[in-house]
Amino acid sequence: MNWDDVRIFLAVARAGQILGAARRLDLNHATVSRRAAGLEEAFGTKLFRRTTSGSELTPAGERFLAIAERIEAEMLGARSEVAGEGETVSGTVRIGAPDGFGVAFLAPRLGRLAELHPDLTVQLVPVPRSFSLSRREADLAITTERPTEGRLVAAKLVDYTLGLYASRAYADAHGLPQSRQELSRHRLVGYVPDLVINPSLDYAAEFAPDWNARFAISSALGQTAAVRAGAGIGILHAFIARSMPDLVPVTSIPPIRRAYWLVYHESMRGLSRIAAVTDFISKAVENEKTLFGAGSADQA
């Protein structure tokens, strides 16, 4: 079996279309289509079902996907060992992360990672969305829930808290609520409910059952900016809000707790560049773990 054919199969399976795979592989569309068809001919069965929107895996394709990923893992491991990758950390690692953690915490610290490994390229994609590690949209992902499906390696990074905050100007003009019931008398800043990427981030009801945000933003940093500008009271990441002296916590309503997880596909296990980045992130969080906890100013 030709490794290039397996590589092309994986690219089509992950992109969900021939054209997308061709772009990722920097190959001609016709070449990818021909090689995929050749692999199907070699197996004597269809691996893809062509649709108007792309290419879907058939049951046989699903079975071969698991085998192809094991082959990929062996090839990556062999390349690492034979090429002596462990001597110099190089290559590219793409990190998918929520914008709050990605921009506010990770981005300012990645310069140190570049100093440690000059031949390593790091791509940080800090947006409020989920990432498919199986489709290789990212090599590593920071998630707010531990994955329960797929061949993924997950390690808990840290617990963090979310609390209610307002700008000092808003608090001076309107006061702060002394109970959950009083929240309804205030302007509220929140998220866009139908764009929440997983249930753990749909937390407004934990602060008030009848939470009704008149100003909704799908970005955690966007919500922070709106609250700082006096738009109202919002649910903010405590580790971000504490660094902004123009924000004050609503201490009558206690914060809630969530967690960050560091996740990567098991086929990446053993690659020195993945190990270097996961180790760096884990140590950076551990060294500043108190930043993420609930401080006395945030407690009821």
Tags for this entry?
single chain, 300 residues, alpha/beta, Arc Repressor Mutant, subunit A, D-Maltodextrin-Binding Protein, domain 2, nine-stranded mixed beta sheet, two-stranded antiparallel ribbon, 37% helix, 22% strand, elongated, disordered C terminus
Structural commentary:
The protein has helices spanning 3-15, 18-25, 29-43, 59-82, 99-106, 110-116, 168-174, 220-228, 238-241, 272-287, and strands at 48-51, 54-57, 91-97, 120-126, 140-143, 152-167, 188-190, 215-216, 233-237, 247-249, 256-265. It has 300 residues and is α/β, with parallel strands linked by helices. The chain folds into 3 domains: 3-82, Orthogonal Bundle (Arc Repressor Mutant, subunit A); 91-155 and 259-280, D-Maltodextrin-Binding Protein, domain 2 (3-Layer(aba) Sandwich); 159-258, Periplasmic binding protein-like II (D-Maltodextrin-Binding Protein, domain 2). The strands form 2 sheets. Strands 3, 4, 5, 6, 7, 8, 9, 10 and 11 form a 9-stranded mixed β-sheet that branches. Helix 1 packs across helix 2 and helix 1 packs across helix 3. It is elongated and about 70 Å long. The model is unreliable at 294-300 (pLDDT under 50).
